[in-house]
Every structure is written in structure tokens, then in C-alpha cells.
Amino acid sequence: EAQVTQNPRYLITVTGKKLTVTCSQNMNHEYMSWYRQDPGLGLRQIYYSMNVEVTDKGDVPEGYKVSRKEKRNFPLILESPSPNQTSLYFCASSLEGQGRDEAFFGQGTRLTVV
Amino acid sequence: LAKTTQPISMDSYEGQEVNITCSHNNIATNDYITWYQQFPSQGPRFIIQGYKTKVTNEVASLFIPADRKSSTLSLPRVSLSDTAVYYCLVVYSSASKIIFGSGTRLSIRP
What we know:
By secondary structure, chain A is an all-beta fold. In chain A, about 0% of the residues lie in helices and about 50% in strands. In chain A, strands 2, 4, 5, 6, 9, 10 and 11 form a 7-stranded mixed sheet that branches. In chain A, a hairpin with a 3-residue loop joins β4 and β5. By secondary structure, chain B is an all-beta fold. Chain B contains no helices and 11 strands. Chain B has strands spanning about 5, 10-15, 20-25, 35-40, 45-50, 55, 60-65, 70-75, 85-90, 95-100, 105-110. The interface of A and B includes residues 92, 99 and 101 of A.
């Protein structure tokens, strides 16, 4: 089954404790991206990657890092999480990327930073 | 400044046609507009995409007027299962950005 898998689904952590949210896709897509979703703000793009070893900042990259060492994986790293990063996070993948084709989204990761 | 605007909420009844409009500015001739549907505790799911005039698939139609300052998602004969949040996603190639609207919460009543 074609899918985007995020882990974990839920995470509660403390301020400053580094964490990684994993994302994996099995569709051989070139493009992957991360979004955060907050009430009233919709989805905002954090980072995206057009291909292996190529990453670019989205609208809200501050406080986040990503890496793309393999085509199928695109982890999101929070080196020093803060409470304002409490949010619902989605990973997505597509063939072409940046709105040019259908994106497939993961189930989401709900992060709480206390 | 790239901005994508949608109504916050809409209500309708089963069997009716629902039209949700998204306003956007400064998009280029070939910039795509895409609509997604999201249910609680799930990721957004693709509905339809286009960049000019009209596109239709088995679940929806997308209308884009010539001035391209807005687009309308049309859902024919909605059912209770269409209750969800609908997002438009607009490409702003001149700014190298893609921007989601803040979402329209659609409630369908029997």
C-alpha cells in the first residue's frame, strides 16, 4: 500500500530536549516536505526537499532541521524544542513537488513541548 | 505579499451543491491551485488540481476565472461524509512559495 509513515504519532517532551520525528515514504517520490498545522493558521511549510541531499527552507524553518540522506526518509529534527513548537506536524511526499502535483500526507505527529 | 484566503466555515444540507471559494493574488499563468480534504486525526487528502478554466473529476469540479485571483471548489450533491475541513493550496512561483489557505470547515446536515 502506498503510504507516508510518520513516527511517533504522539509525543510529549520537555523544553530543550532534542527530538526527531521520522518520515518514510514507499512511493519512490523525489519530493518530500514537512508542515506544521496550528488552529486558524492552516498548514505552514517548514522545510522541503526536491531530491536526496537537497533541502530548502519553507515559510517557518526557525528551530527545525531536516536531512535527506536517502530518497525514502526525511526526518524532522528539533535540536532544542520550545513550547511554541507545540503543534501538529505532517510529512508529505509527491513526484514533482511544490504544489505541482498530488501530495500524499502522513497521519500526523502531535507534539507537545512543556 | 502572497496570501491565500478562504471562508472559515460553511453549512449545507445533504444533496445540495456546495461551492467553496479561495482568494489568491499574484499567481503566475501556470501556477497550480490544489484542494485538499481533511478529516479529524488524519492528514489532508487530495481532491482536485488545476491552473486554468475548469477541471472536473469523479468527486469535484474546480473553476478558475480568467483573472486567476480566485478559484472555486464545487462539490455536487454532498453527503454527511463530506463534513470535513477543506484547504486550498496555491503555488506562488514568483516568490518560490506554496501557501495553504487557513481552511474552510464544511458541515453537512441531514
